[in-house]
Amino acid sequence: AAKYGCPADSLALGRGTWRLLHTMAAYYPDQPSSQQQQDMRSFITLFSKFYPCPPCAEDFREWLKTNTPKVDSRSGLSQWFCEAHNEVNKKLQKPLFDCKRINERWLDGWADGSCD
Ligand code: FAD
C-alpha cells in the first residue's frame, strides 16, 4: 500500500480531497440560498482549475461540461460528488460506490462503526 507522502503524492492528495469534498457536501444546506448555490458553483469551477494534479483536473473539467453541479440541495450535491468520484473510480478500474449509501459513509458513519 502507498504510504502517505510528505509532500502529498497523488494518492494521498486524492484521498484527502475526496474526504473534504464529500464531507462538504454532507454539510451543505438542505435549502441553500441562491448566493450559496452560486458560491458552490464557483467553488467547483475554481477547484477544477487549481486541483494540483493536471491530468486529473483536466478530466474533471471535461466531465463538468456535461455534468452540471447539482447545487440546489444537500442530497443533490452529495449525489453529484458521488457520481463525480465514481467517474474517476471507473477510469482507475476501482469498484463503484453505491451512492444510496453516501450518508452512511460521509455523515452518520457505518452501522458497524467501521470507517471505510
Ligand atoms: P479514494 O478514491 O480516494 O476514496 C476514498 C474513500 O472514499 C474510499 O475508501 C471510499 O470509502 C469512499 N468512496 C469511494 N468512491 C466513492 C464515491 N463514488 N462516493 C463517495 N465516496 C466514495 N487519480 C488518478 O490516478 N487519476 C485521475 O485522473 C484522478 N482524478 C482525480 C480527480 C479528482 C477530482 C480527485 C479528487 C481525485 C482524483 N484522483 C485521480 C485520485 C483518486 O480518485 C483517488 O483519490 C486515489 O487513487 C486514492 O484512492 P483510494 O483507493 O485511497 O480511495
TrEMBL record:
Predominant place of localization: mitochondrion
Record's keyword annotation contains Mitochondrion: yes
Residues in ERV/ALR sulfhydryl oxidase domain copies: 6-106
MF GO annotations: flavin adenine dinucleotide binding; flavin-dependent sulfhydryl oxidase activity
Keyword field: Disulfide bond, FAD, Flavoprotein, Mitochondrion, Oxidoreductase
Subcellular location: Mitochondrion intermembrane space
Domain of life: Eukaryota
Class of the enzyme per the UniProt entry, highest EC level: oxidoreductase
Catalytic activity line of the entry: 2 R'C(R)SH + O2 = R'C(R)S-S(R)CR' + H2O2
EC number: 1.8.3.2
Signal sequence segment: none
Cofactor(s) demanded: FAD
GO cellular component: mitochondrial intermembrane space
Entry keyword Flavoprotein: yes
Identification of the protein by name: Sulfhydryl oxidase
Species this protein is from: Portunus trituberculatus
Gene: Gfer
First-to-last residue of the parent protein present: 47 to 162 of 162
